Amino acid sequence: MASASHQQVIIYTTPTCPDDWVLKAWLKREEIEFEEYDLSDRKIMAKAKACTGLRVAPITLVGEKVFYGTFPSQKPGLAVALGLSHAA
């Protein structure tokens, strides 16, 4: 569920990906609420691919914006999309 001050955030993750763990910890630290979906479920993977064209983890959706790749590569864009100028 998204907080009132931010757009809806959805993340697609896997249980074993270190970048997924870092992303989730960062979102929690920044007090950003998010919905999480496990890409190890084939139906979830198919949905993520249909929505984003991607089959990687983590995938982060902020409103209509899509971010993917390692957490360090996502963080600057996520910070901007979430209005977290202090976190970039």
UniProtKB/TrEMBL annotation:
Gene3D superfamilies, per database record: Glutaredoxin
Glutaredoxin domain: residues covered: 9-65
InterPro entries from the UniProt entry: Glutaredoxin (IPR002109), Thioredoxin-like_sf (IPR036249)
Pfam families hit by this protein: Glutaredoxin
SUPFAM superfamilies: Thioredoxin-like (SSF52833)
Stated name of the protein: Glutaredoxin
